[in-house]
Write a structure and sequence with these properties.
CATH superfamily of the largest domain: Immunoglobulins
Number of strands: 18
Order of helices and strands: HEEEEEEEEEEEEEEEEEE
Structural class: mainly beta
Radius of gyration: 31 Å
Oligomer: single chain
Strand content: over 45%
CATH topology of the largest domain: Immunoglobulin-like
Helix content: under 10%
Mean pLDDT: 88
Largest sheet: 5 strands, mixed
Length: about 230
């Protein structure tokens, strides 16, 4: 009788020890299609615990541009369903994109499950700054007490007005814009007046902030070798 009890108990223990949680997603890739830049795509990855034990969501991380909103709960009984809600923020993107979300669980066969968000972002109304030529100026060898002027041309390659919002620069520099608002496809220029203040190597930059959709701040590097008057 004792031997019979052991023979029955051993298989039961083996079944109990083999019981695990298992996360099964309905889809691991979601395509939001075409989205206008600036809008938000709301998506949901549906899953089910197809295992025998409680499924535990340990952690969810996402790549830049995606935010996983709070999951309903972190523990799911056998057979229970849930969702991983995701928001994709399209501002600053253009063209085809692919973002990943990593879900960490106690599923021994799928400790890390990678989900993908895909689609295309379309820019319709945007301003864009583009420098015509180099983004740096070298005044080369200059003398104290003199003024030197160099010009940089730029263009609005966007679809709405480009506006110069703010300009920061070193005290030796005086920028003069011929236009601070450019229509689409219009060109402008900035004359950079340089008045040396100290003998030696000069290295500085001028930051131009605009309403461009992506690169809102443009850096122009400036350099010179300043000589004395003797």
């Amino acid at each position: 009788m004792k031997r019979l009890f052991i023979l029955i108990l051993v298989p039961l223990l083996a079944v109990t020890l083999a019981a695990t949680a298992k996360i099964t997603f309905e889809k691991t890739e979601l395509d939001f299609g075409e989205l206008e830049s600036g809008k938000v795509a709301d998506l949901e990855f549906k899953f089910k615990n197809t295992g025998d034990e409680t499924l535990i969501i340990k952690n969810i991380s996402s790549s830049c541009g995606c935010t996983v909103t709070k999951v309903e709960k972190k523990e799911y009984k056998a057979g229970e369903e849930g969702t991983v809600p995701v928001k994709f923020f399209s501002r600053g993107y253009n063209g085809k994109i692919t973002k990943t979300i990593t879900v960490s669980t106690n599923d021994p066969e799928n400790v890390y499950t990678r989900l993908k968000v895909m689609g295309s972002v379309v820019l319709k109304d945007f301003a864009q700054w583009e420098i015509i030529g180099a983004d740096r100026l070298d005044f080369k060898e200059v003398a104290m007490g003199q003024k030197y002027t160099e010009t940089i041309k730029f263009k609005n390659t966007g679809t709405i007005e480009l506006r110069i919002v703010e300009v920061t620069h070193a005290p030796e520099i005086s920028p003069e814009f011929n236009k601070k608002v450019l229509a689409p496809d219009e060109e402008g220029e900035v004359s950079i007046v340089f008045k040396p203040m100290q003998v030696g190597r000069f290295a500085a930059f001028m930051r131009i902030r605009t309403n461009a959709y992506k690169q809102r701040s443009v850096i122009i590097k400036l350099s010179a070798e300043i000589k004395g008057n003797d």
